[in-house]
Amino acid sequence: MTATPLTSTQTTVSATTWLRRFLALDAVVTGGNGLAYLALSGPLGDLLGVDRALLVALGAFLTVFAAGVGYLASRQQPPTFGVQVVVESNLLWAVLSIAALFLWLSPTTAGSVWIPLQAVTVAGFAMLQHGALRAVRAS
């Protein structure tokens, strides 16, 4: 068995594949979250201690955002600008989630666990996407 070094083309394909996978995962998770907020705003609002109208608005936003992220993931070469917008939006979401937890919301215990958990998840998506985008640019 011989080891062959990756060519620049193979590295680019690999980095682009990972970028598309991270975008697709983000789209699926965000879309699922958005649809859950839309369809179950009453029970989730009660569980999390978050206003139902806020969950509906967030659900609508997340569903549209997820569709955009999914579109980027479907591109053979996702545009750099679009990916940067997703990364920065995810980071903003994470920061605003934590700020809202302390400044505006009065969540239940479940909400006090869920809000930081989803903020960390979204920040993780941003970091994975940012790293993959850097790898695409470097190759």
Task: Write up what this structure looks like.
Helix 4 (80-103) packs antiparallel against helix 5 (109-138). The protein has one domain (9-138). The protein has helices at 8-39, 41-48, 52-74, 80-103, 109-138. The chain is built from five helices and no strands. The chain is mostly helical and 139 residues long.
Task: Produce a short descriptive summary.
The protein is an all-alpha fold and 139 residues long.
Query: Are there runs of 5+ residues with pLDDT below 50, and where?
Result: none
Mean pLDDT: 93
Question: What's the main sheet like?
Answer: none
What share of the residues lie within helices?
A: over 70%
Overall number of strands: 0
> What proportion of the residues form beta strands (DSSP E)?
under 5%
Large-scale geometry: elongated
Structural class: mainly alpha
Number of domains: 1
Order of helices and strands: HHHHH
Gyration radius (Cα, Å) is 18 Å
- Termini distance? 26 Å
DSSP helical segment count: 5
Secondary-structure blueprint:
Elements: H1 8-39, H2 41-48, H3 52-74, H4 80-103, H5 109-138
Throw out a few tags for this protein.
membrane, 139 residues, 5 helices, single chain, 0% strand, mainly alpha, Integral membrane protein, transmembrane, 84% helix, transmembrane helix, elongated
